[in-house]
Amino acid sequence: MAGSQRLKRMADSVQRELSELIRQELKDPRLGGLVTISAVKVSADMGYAEVYVTVMGRELGDEQSEAANKETLDVLNKASGFLRHELSRRIKTRITPRLRFHYDKTNAYGNYMFGLIEKAVQDLPEQSSEDKS
Question: What residue ranges define each of the domains in the chain, with the CATH number in brackets?
Answer without folding.
Answer: 2-124 (3.30.300.20)
